[in-house]
């Protein structure tokens, strides 16, 4: 066994001709391997072959694939409805129903059929690779090879090792996936692996803010999409995935971690599933997808006059680019010394505008003795974001609020107000994503580099959560989480021990250099 990619002469057997299986067969055949596509029903195999042919023809029509390459890939595919003719395969990838006993039975059959040196791989997204391997005589030859749907388009592949997986097997699959044009990452067999575990807060925090009636889904989606650069907001993404699927994954991770409150499912989503409002596929979820239905617009504050000058006090940390944007819009900026790094604010008329630190505006106003306090939510790039999200303390006067809103509007910003919830929506989401990723590193599920890569390529996040934490500063992220934990009194927001360690060492980051 070598740690190089499998030779292209090695035959690949893909079991399951559905969307995922046919997609994997497409990838392997296009990479140059002879491929058996197996399903128990001939009509399923025919549909899988037709889907591959259609997809390859589409690539040719778009100029992304030569006709000769398309024909060669098709010629490498052999449809089968029996496993015996594929006994010479050197790699078998199962992509069948997510049922442990069914997968174990199939893997035992494959182990008996194929040569002892053959590699067995499972495309499971939720089941234990260790448990699957326990049913085998040679469990070291089994690893997870988790593609993301659609397999021909999505770059990420999680290479998942169970307790018995031979390191050389994982290394070979890693090299093979890279040779197939994918972006592979190593992961340990734990519930959710990397992506399905680390991504849970993206849905959970938005659902929590919605449960507090802080804003409508359209506004929260716009905040995370426009303010932080996520490709889709959490509510529109859950509608796309299907609430039955998304809720089931959350339940699975929650149960697998013995009821860890960090993964607590949402009652709101449970109600949607119970009502049959599963999202796009049922015609209704958080949004109505009926042909005549109007898509709700995110809320935006009406125009206000704003101020022509402001004062920056101290260090604004991540919000520094906002000041340059206001200056470019003609607002006169004065500067005054502050108390410490990242503890600054902006004086606008009678109001104080500050970046959220995880406390509510009302609590922070009381503690700092500033009634007219307005909090600014996190944005990935304040110099370019089209939208900012604000929350005001309960005692903040309308005139002070209008001055802040109008001044930000002068810089071309759309301002959305949400109710005074701790951490607003973008900040708490990014902090929790980073916290979950930090725990995944701490527990050896993946390296910091692999986890960030997985989240960028598996979910199309604009930035890896640990790189994001590095940019904000681990100490700041840890402080946000501590404030959330104190506010809610829940272990859900407990700070990862690894994040705490970095927070205590100025200059230390998840990624060196």
Short recap of the structure:
The protein has 20 helices and 15 strands.
Secondary structure tally, helices = 20
Q: Kindly give the count of domains.
A: 4
> Which CATH architecture of the largest domain would you pick?
3-Layer(aba) Sandwich
The helicity comes to: 40-55%
Distance between the termini: 35 Å
CATH superfamily of the largest domain: NAD(P)-binding Rossmann-like Domain
Features:
single chain, Rossmann fold, N-(1-d-carboxylethyl)-l-norvaline Dehydrogenase, domain 2, elongated, 4 domains, alpha/beta, eight-stranded mixed beta sheet
Textual characterization of the structure:
This protein is α/β, with parallel strands linked by helices and 513 residues long. The protein has four domains: 12-189, Rossmann fold (3-Layer(aba) Sandwich), CATH 3.40.50.720; 198-274, N-(1-d-carboxylethyl)-l-norvaline Dehydrogenase, domain 2; 309-417, Transcription Regulator spoIIAA; 426-448 and 460-503, no CATH class. Helices cover 42% and strands 14% of the residues. The chain has helices at residues 19-30, 42-61, 67-75, 100-113, 129-133, 167-179, 195-198, 200-211, 217-227, 234-241, 243-256, 267-274, 320-328, 361-368, 398-410, 426-442, 448-458, 465-472, 474-488, 497-503; strands spanning 12-15, 35-38, 77-80, 91-94, 119-122, 142-147, 156-161, 183-188, 309-313, 332-336, 345-348, 351-355, 373-376, 387-392, 414-417. Helix 10 (234-241) packs across helix 11, helix 16 (426-442) crosses helix 18 and helix 19 packs across helix 20. The longest helix is centred in the first third of the chain and has 20 residues, at 42-61. It starts with 11 loop residues before the first strand and ends in a 10-residue tail after the last helix. The mean pLDDT is 96.
């Amino acid at each position: 066994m070598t740690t190089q990619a499998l030779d292209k002469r090695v035959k690949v057997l893909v079991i399951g001709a559905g969307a995922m299986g046919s997609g994997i067969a497409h990838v392997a055949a296009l990479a140059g391997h002879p491929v058996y596509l197996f399903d128990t029903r001939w009509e399923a195999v025919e549909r899988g072959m037709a889907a591959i042919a259609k997809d390859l023809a589409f690539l040719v029509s778009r100029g992304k694939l030569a006709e000769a390459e398309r024909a060669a890939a098709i010629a490498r595919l052999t449809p089968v409805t029996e496993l015996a003719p594929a006994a010479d395969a050197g790699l078998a990838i199962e992509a069948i129903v997510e049922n442990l006993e069914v997968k174990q039975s199939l893997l035992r059959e494959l182990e008996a059929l194929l040569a002892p040196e053959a590699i067995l791989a499972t495309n499971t997204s939720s089941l234990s690779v260790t448990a699957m391997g326990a049913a085998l005589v040679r469990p070291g030859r089994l690893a997870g090879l988790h593609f993301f749907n659609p397999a021909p388009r999505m770059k990420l592949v999680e290479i998942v090792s169970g307790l018995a997986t031979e390191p050389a097997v994982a290394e070979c699959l890693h090299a093979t996936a890279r040779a197939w044009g994918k972006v592979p990452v190593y992961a340990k067999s734990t519930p959710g692996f990397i992506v399905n575990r680390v991504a849970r807060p993206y849905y959970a925090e938005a659902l929590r803010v919605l449960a507090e009636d802080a804003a409508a889904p359209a506004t929260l989606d716009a905040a995370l999409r426009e303010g932080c650069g996520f490709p889709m907001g959490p509510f529109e993404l859950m509608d796309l995935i299907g609430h039955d699927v998304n809720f089931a994954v959350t339940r699975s991770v929650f149960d697998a971690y013995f009821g860890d409150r960090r993964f607590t499912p949402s009652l709101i989503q449970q109600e949607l599933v119970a009502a049959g409002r599963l999202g796009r596929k049922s015609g209704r979820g958080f949004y109505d997808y009926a042909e005549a239905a109007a898509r709700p617009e995110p809320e935006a504050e009406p125009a206000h006059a704003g101020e022509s000058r402001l004062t920056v006090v101290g260090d604004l940390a991540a919000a520094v680019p906002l000041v340059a944007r206001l200056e470019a819009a003609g607002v006169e900026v004065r500067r005054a010394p502050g108390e410490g790094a990242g503890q600054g604010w902006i004086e606008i008329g009678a109001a104080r505008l500050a970046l959220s630190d995880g406390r509510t505006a009302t609590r922070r106003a009381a503690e700092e003795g500033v009634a007219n306090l307005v909090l600014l939510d996190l944005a990935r790039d304040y110099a370019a974001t089209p939208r900012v999200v604000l929350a005001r303390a309960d005692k903040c006067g309308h005139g002070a609020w209008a001055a802040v809103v109008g001044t930000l509007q002068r810089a071309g910003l759309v301002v959305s107000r949400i109710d005074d919830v701790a951490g607003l929506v973008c900040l708490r989401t990014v902090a929790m994503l980073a916290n979950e990723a930090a725990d995944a590193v701490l527990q050896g599920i993946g390296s910091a580099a692999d986890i960030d890569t997985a989240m960028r390529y598996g979910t199309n996040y604009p930035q890896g959560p640990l790189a994001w934490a590095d940019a904000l500063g681990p100490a700041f992220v840890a402080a946000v989480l501590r404030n959330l934990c104190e506010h809610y009194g829940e272990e859900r927001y407990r700070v990862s021990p690894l994040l705490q360690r970095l927070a205590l060492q100025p200059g230390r980051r998840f990624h060196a250099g």
